[in-house]
Write a structure and sequence with these properties.
The chain has about 100 residues and is an all-alpha fold. It has 3 helices and no strands. Keywords: Signal.
Length: about 100
């Protein structure tokens, strides 16, 4: 039934006058192109393209959270290692370059 209706629609469209479907004169098309030929405006870009990094990070699972909590607790309670001095630079006493002033 649908194919038959489509066939009838195509036959009806073929009965139309071909002159009505031809293009208009040059004056009419020039006016039409002036109204249509507007300067292209780029689409606004709301977010910069950052590759494939737009995936949302998931909350870590229970075991990962427990592991991270243990590590943070160890880091918080571990005694801070006192750093030894790496080296001592010994310098001689400064020598004066100006002669002493008589008083």
């Amino acid at each position: 039934m649908t194919k038959f209706l489509l066939f009838l629609l195509c036959a009806f469209l073929m009965l139309g006058e071909p002159t009505a479907a031809q293009a208009e004169s040059a004056e009419g098309t020039a006016a039409l192109t002036e109204t249509v030929a507007y300067p292209r405006v780029p689409r606004p870009v709301y977010k910069r393209y950052r590759g494939n990094s737009r995936s949302k990070h998931r909350k870590p699972g229970m075991f990962r959270r427990m592991k991270l909590r243990r590590q943070a607790k160890l880091k918080r309670t571990a005694p801070r290692a006192v750093r030894k001095p790496q080296g001592v630079i010994k310098v001689d006493a400064p020598t004066g370059t100006m002669p002493k002033q008589p008083q």
